[in-house]
Amino acid sequence: MKGKLFYAGLLVFFIFAGIAHYAHMNTTLQFIIACIAIIFVAGFLGKATESVAHYAGERMGGFLNATFGNAAELIIAFFLVKDGLYDVVKASVTGAIIGNLLLVLGLSIFTGGLKFKEQKFNVNLASHNSSLMILAVVALFIPAIFTGGLTTKETSNMSMIVAILLIAAYLLWLFFSMVTHKSLLSDEAIEHGEAAWSKGMSILFLFVATVMVAFTSEWLVGTLEEVTHKFGLSELFVGAFLIAIIGNAAEHSAAVMMALKNKMGAAVEIAIGSSLQIALFVAPVLILLSFVVSGTPMNIVFSTYEIAAIGVAVFITKSITQDGSTNWYEGLLLLIVYIILGVVFFLV
Amino acid sequence: MKGKLFYAGLLVFFIFAGIAHYAHMNTTLQFIIACIAIIFVAGFLGKATESVAHYAGERMGGFLNATFGNAAELIIAFFLVKDGLYDVVKASVTGAIIGNLLLVLGLSIFTGGLKFKEQKFNVNLASHNSSLMILAVVALFIPAIFTGGLTTKETSNMSMIVAILLIAAYLLWLFFSMVTHKSLLSDEAIEHGEAAWSKGMSILFLFVATVMVAFTSEWLVGTLEEVTHKFGLSELFVGAFLIAIIGNAAEHSAAVMMALKNKMGAAVEIAIGSSLQIALFVAPVLILLSFVVSGTPMNIVFSTYEIAAIGVAVFITKSITQDGSTNWYEGLLLLIVYIILGVVFFLV
Amino acid sequence: MKGKLFYAGLLVFFIFAGIAHYAHMNTTLQFIIACIAIIFVAGFLGKATESVAHYAGERMGGFLNATFGNAAELIIAFFLVKDGLYDVVKASVTGAIIGNLLLVLGLSIFTGGLKFKEQKFNVNLASHNSSLMILAVVALFIPAIFTGGLTTKETSNMSMIVAILLIAAYLLWLFFSMVTHKSLLSDEAIEHGEAAWSKGMSILFLFVATVMVAFTSEWLVGTLEEVTHKFGLSELFVGAFLIAIIGNAAEHSAAVMMALKNKMGAAVEIAIGSSLQIALFVAPVLILLSFVVSGTPMNIVFSTYEIAAIGVAVFITKSITQDGSTNWYEGLLLLIVYIILGVVFFLV
């Protein structure tokens, strides 16, 4: 990340990835270059987001991180919904949630914990995040339990109603956390990140970086099917792990960066905030969109595997974050649970 | 609730509901009048309970609220057990538990939170309530998991033993919370409610109000079967939602009243205390009673739907109350979970 | 425990149990004598461990207690694995975990709570223990959920990988709690137990006591099969309750002793530390050993009953210990859950 060298790499690999894509080069080559390119563009997005965050305050910055971090997922999922690939959508939603809670948060806590013995953050934020995550689990668990006794029509009605309730809960959460109880949830010990650019330039670069992430993501996704077939991987594993890891690269670098600066509140906000946004906003919006786009709407009924994975991720994240303090071992625990889930998803 | 006007409404609707019942008027009319009447008698019970609570102290008052709030449920359930309608009993037990945890508590926290930015209560009380709620979930979950390998005789033996253990746990809880650790669980910042009447009159009115609630409940229940058939509702939905909402009207008004006076400790005690009393005392007593009343005793094996609903309600309530502080958004979350459960129970 | 009388009983019953075993006396007699003998040798082990703990510090002492407390289980399980009795191994692992969490901890909290109104311990320790227990539940729950779609070969591969991850998590936990974050987890109010002997003698007696426990355990196990058939008990019940209760006698006496001395941190460390060691170290080691010893390795897939029992035990223990404070009623709750599980395991 040494200034000029970084921007040179960013431009070279982004352009190279574009050429590889439009020139229809060898798929495995396309894939590898796109992967490298996405690390750079995600890093750029992280820088830009942090610079904007400097002007916007820590918590609003965390929210911006979550929003721009999910841009890639939203674009990918939108394409999948349009093609009616509902199972892959659900797998990638699952993957994004557990990826944020276990991998992004785990890596942030672990690396932050190697540098600082103990990292503290606002316990009210952790407590509210927990309750919202439980709402997300409940909203996925209940339909799956009750769906046995329902017709397709009833299931789709139920899905629409639950989706609307979740979106309402999410919008009211924004109202709560940004308007009525802003001070309750903000971190006391805010230590502002340096601003790389002026306010105007920061916002411009945030926009540019988002567009670059979106393009690179698309190029990458285009190669995924062929590459996965070549290496014999299942759609569930690819959706829940490969897409999620690559799609969350932005959160990764941003959250880890925050953790290394001892701003654990912001790292938690990025990781948990992002998974909440996916569960309570992105997924329900996709359900409503699917109703508009296609004849048969996507339902909210996730598979037992997916609910078990999300439930387990929420449960251990809640246990680890609820005291408002983290250390390297707690990060490691999250990573171990992620690896266990990765192993079983890979085998299934 | 403007004094004289309230008491006029109370008398008029109570008498009108009685006439409608005994004169066998149109069932839908009977139903509507009984619903209005129960709002008034429940309000009266709330007033009387609060007045008694003024003399008895906040926590004992909360306990009184729970006890008198469950009077209606107990009477209804007793009739159902006598008729051998065990599935409806279990549905109404389920409904009473989730109604108290999600609807009563949710409404109290929400309305209290609209008036006060943050409401605090004794965190020890919340912590002990959580542990007892988990005992209740365990006591319902374990028999349901293990029942596959058991004969009817063994299931009924198991139900009796678990019922006796739960009653013992409940009675020892009363001993713990009223005798050995009274100070641990009491709220520091008690702000006594005004007493409407003298001590003697308060107790008399508490008795009168309880009798009025009982009568009105019975009239209402008498119309339920016909009304639900007319409007095409399932027994599960009626038992778990209609009966529970109407039967809990007393807790509703009492708990919301407490919350609006910033006595959140008392509101929590009413709502959670009431659901604990149902799970750990009313339900086990009904099991033992069923053994006495009929040849085939009611077992403790609840359906997957019911256990899922109770488990989900306990889990989110625990998450929200464990920090001893509430706000409007946390009340809203409880209400959203209640609506989601209502939707799926309605559809099943 | 009056000095000389105790040591006389120890020697008499240990020798008597040995004679009964090698002379092939009546099995029921062998069983009863071995039971009495094990109470004495466990008491001796408790004394020796506490004396060593005096020299080693409270937390290291707790760790020693856990280690030597599990010696008996390890030896028993090793024999069972060698004979390929994998179901009994899993039942006894289950029994050891729930026995430590519910019976040992419950009895400690209950008896300690009868003597002291409130007993406090380091809340960081409780919080980390909770997170590790959740890892243990996740590691058992995930394979059981996903195993449906796997071949025997894949299941055994998954079991090996998960076992290695758990052992890594356990060893890093020791590194964390003994090296990098020792002070975070230690109890402030340490009140050292008296040392019965010199440091050298204490270590010698610890060794002697461990050997005596091992021998007595083996003699006892030899009689179990015949005795259980004679009294018509299932293997599941015997493995999960009888073996676990007898095998945990050392933790029992040691943990209860600590609780009665108001050293609740040490009691919690013995009980929870012991169950963590079994879940995260003993069980995975047995899986790896089974791979070496026999052709078909033992898999990590526990039955629904076993996972439900462990999950329930972890959940209620977490709820009760998370505030770092206990009282008699909380101990009672743990014991009631243990009895409920005992009843259903006995009936199944």
Automatic annotation (TrEMBL), chains A, B, C:
It is a multi-pass membrane protein. Keywords: Antiport, Calcium, Calcium transport, Ion transport, Membrane, Transmembrane, Transmembrane helix, Transport. GO terms for biological process: intracellular calcium ion homeostasis. GO terms for cellular component: endomembrane system; membrane. Residues 28-178, 202-346 form the Sodium/calcium exchanger membrane region domain. GO terms for molecular function: calcium:proton antiporter activity. Ca(+)/H(+) antiporter that extrudes calcium in exchange for external protons. Pfam families: Na_Ca_ex (PF01699). This is Ca(2+)/H(+) antiporter.
